[in-house]
Amino acid sequence: MIEVRGLAKRFRLPSHQGKPPQSHDPRGHDGWFHAVRDVSFRCAPGEVLGLLGPNGAGKTTTLRLLSTALKADAGSVVANGVDLLADPLAARQRIGFLSGTTGLYGRLTARENVEYFGRLHGMSAPYLRRRCDELFELLQMHQFVDKRADQLSTGMKQKCAIARAVVHEPQIVILDEPTTGLDVMSAKILLDFIASYKALRIPLIFSTHHLHEVDKLCDRVCIINHGKTAFHGSTEELRHLGGSADLYDAFVDVIKQGG
Ligand SMILES: Nc1ncnc2c1ncn2[C@@H]1O[C@H](COP(=O)(O)OP(=O)(O)OP(=O)(O)O)[C@@H](O)[C@H]1O
């Protein structure tokens, strides 16, 4: 179980920038931009949680706080009783994090990129080999696994980045917009891969703009608007929020209500 409570993060606005980045955005004041103001949600073993919200809502910042890539100003992230914000090393061992910004090593092959991260996590050679074979099979990477990363297509790179993020068999998986840039067949492989975590009873959190992915995969949803949790509940609760049983309508309602 991962439980996130009252997460907050602000960034200093450049001194020449009197106004917040979006002038209608209530988050910029006093020389700071409060990107994440109060985000709370939980994800239990066997659940997939979808993190939704308009562009700039604070999804990536929230996920970077969870992964300890950024230091939170307030709030807590507790996983199986361990306070991850207080113990970033424990967090990095427990969490597999796919970020939209971390590049692969271009001169290494896909296989070498994944193996390198496995070794950094202290995996033994036979265990690492077994785990890589399993991941390359699940993500259908065999055709390009020995190609240099700088020669891979966008979708191939994304699969490689995901394999790298979860090579150490983390207890919690966090993926920032994992299907971005993937064609239909690759997206299907990835969605099946995400779904497989339910059977493993490993909480998986992913951000997305695609409501059909939420419909297909998510047990639970957190909608962030202007840096705050505007909705948190089961996908079924969200679906019936507006009475139309349509996720698109419900999402729009939550955002229009100003969350
Ligand atoms: N390092 C930073 N310094 C200043 N502002 C930042 C920084 N990182 C993010 N922000 C601002 O915080 C807000 C939230 O950004 P974030 O990337 O978390 O949004 P998002 O919900 O992931 O958006 P998208 O759907 O477009 O990916 C944005 O207004 C962004 O400009």
TrEMBL record:
Q: Per UniProt, which keywords does this protein have?
A: ATP-binding, Cell membrane, Membrane, Nodulation, Nucleotide-binding, Transport
Annotated signal sequence range: none
Q: Where is the ABC transporter domain?
A: 2-251
Q: Name one GO molecular function term.
A: ATP hydrolysis activity
Q: PANTHER family this protein is in? A: ABC TRANSPORTER ATP-BINDING PROTEIN, ABC TRANSPORTER ATP-BINDING PROTEIN NATA
Of which family is this protein a member?
A: Belongs to the ABC transporter superfamily.
The protein's name = Sodium transport system ATP-binding protein
Organism encoding this protein: Rugamonas rubra
